[in-house]
Design goal:
Distance between the termini: 25 Å
Oligomer: single chain
Largest sheet: 9 strands, mixed
Strand content: 25-35%
Helix content: 25-40%
Shape: globular
Low-confidence stretches: 1-70, 438-452
Length: 452
């Protein structure tokens, strides 16, 4: 087990044009302390006078003098672990399940799924005393024997209701920057609502990323209103189909692990239409088995006269149900019956019945996000037809915080930038991205632009 603890005091401080982060600890009687690097799992405080801020390397430490009336606030301690104890993993998973705006890609099960395609996990676990208050699951992989890549999808996270969330984010950002310094490339897609994480990493040397480690945005339906009100917002055609599917022999049932070969067969049909490689049965089985064990995945099968023609796997975390894998055989009669929409309608009702807040239909292309969010366009024939089908549910397009990256040394960064601007390099990067993603497929829409 690899274990590294770092204890720093965090508060926001402005240094030049960037934002520096430090861990804030209030002390009584105006005493000031500064944490030094712990040894063998201990925190070793040292007293130091003064109120200035000094920066050493990439870590900023700040000393604060607080009024004697303020209570003592425990510092945030971040532990870096490659193989946490089972109890620590269970505690981490419970935290992930309470954090809105993240994804199953932060669950410990995801590290086992991604282990099939060569990834190794590193957990950054942030504690205040004995209480887990935040952290991140970073997935690492080595390419070409010397390019060490790390990526963090929809993290870092912080516990809901913590008294000092900025201190938690700052402590995890400090450790994330330290980890990035040991890698060739680090890519981070912060979770929804964590624009402060993007800002903090940009201030620490990261830059805006276009690598596509996770969808930049998506399309989702709010499940809070009554089901009749949700249905009333559907397009006229979709609303009509909800009353006609049964008479045309279209039904939807829950699936289980025995249906996974069928799912892979149907994904092969989708892959052939959209020209991408579907994942293997072993990968799909591991994904479903790991997530379903914790009730984080569900499988739905669409049928026409009892013949399966469509299958969707959705994942569940916190208040979000999200489309993850899908396949559809659109030949014959099924092509005229909007069976994928029937499956989504059943998923929507199931998610509503189980008390979830959102149904996410999966990532949207950047052009659609730009048109819908920035330009206010609601429909366009230039958008991919498979993506336009989502709009019939009359949901909302949204963006995640800006993704960031750190690529070092300079020669690698220069080569990477050159590749992104030229066709041959773009093809090589696309091949590398496909390898990193583990051949993840789309939700009836072709390959997603995501590593997770």
């Amino acid at each position: 087990m690899s274990l590294r603890r770092s204890a720093t005091r965090v508060q926001k401080a402005t240094h030049n044009s960037g934002r520096c982060w430090c861990v804030l600890k209030r002390r009584q009687r105006g005493n000031v302390s500064k944490a030094t690097k712990p040894s063998a799992g201990q925190l070793v405080p040292q007293q130091r006078s003064g109120s200035d801020t000094e920066q050493i390397g990439a870590t900023t430490q700040s000393r604060d003098v607080s009024p004697a009336s303020n209570p003592v606030e425990e510092p945030v301690v971040v532990r870096r672990e490659d193989s946490p104890e089972p109890s620590a993993l269970a505690e981490w998973d419970r935290l992930v399940d309470t954090c809105p705006g993240t994804d199953v890609t932060q669950l410990s099960a995801w590290s086992r799924i991604r282990g099939l395609v060569g990834y190794r996990p590193t957990y950054l676990l942030a504690y205040r005393g004995n209480r887990l208050v935040g952290g991140a699951l970073v997935l690492r992989r080595t390419l070409l024997r010397w390019i060490r890549i790390g990526y963090l999808p929809y993290g870092p996270l912080r516990a809901e209701g913590d008294s000092a969330p900025a201190a938690v984010s700052g402590a995890v950002v400090d450790e994330l920057v330290a980890l990035a310094g040991e890698l060739t490339m680090m890519f981070v897609q912060p979770p929804e609502g964590a624009t402060d994480v993007t800002d903090a990493l940009l201030a620490r040397g990261f830059r805006v990323s276009t690598a596509g480690i996770a969808p930049a945005g998506s399309y989702r339906v709010d499940l809070t209103p009554p089901i009749a009100e949700i249905r009333a917002r559907f397009s006229k055609r979709l609303k009509s189909w909800t009353n006609r599917w049964e008479s045309h022999g279209v039904t939807v049932r829950r699936g289980d692990e025995r249906d996974l070969p069928l799912l892979c067969e149907l994904m092969a049909h989708t892959a052939a239409r959209h020209h991408f490689d579907p994942p293997s049965l072993d990968y799909v089985t591991t994904l479903y088995r790991e997530l379903a064990a914790g009730e984080h995945a569900a499988l739905f099968i669409g049928q026409v006269h009892n013949k399966p023609v469509c299958a969707d796997v959705v994942t569940v975390v916190a208040d979000m149900v999200r489309g993850r894998l899908g396949g559809f055989d659109g030949s014959g009669e099924a092509s005229k019956l909007s069976v994928p929409a029937a499956v989504r309608w059943e998923i929507l009702r199931w998610a509503k019945e189980h008390g979830h807040r959102w149904l996410d239909f999966g990532g949207l292309p950047e052009q659609m996000l730009y048109d819908m969010i920035d330009r206010g366009i609601h429909a366009s024939d230039e958008w991919p037809s498979a993506q336009r089908a989502k709009l019939a549910f009359n949901g909302t397009a949204f963006r995640y915080p800006t993704p960031v990256e750190l690529i070092r040394p300079a020669v690698v960064r220069t080569g990477y930038d050159f590749a992104t601007r030229h066709r041959i390099g773009q093809r090589a990067l696309a091949l590398a991205r496909n390898t990193l993603r583990g051949n993840r497929t789309a939700y009836h829409s072709g390959p997603r632009q995501a590593m997770e």
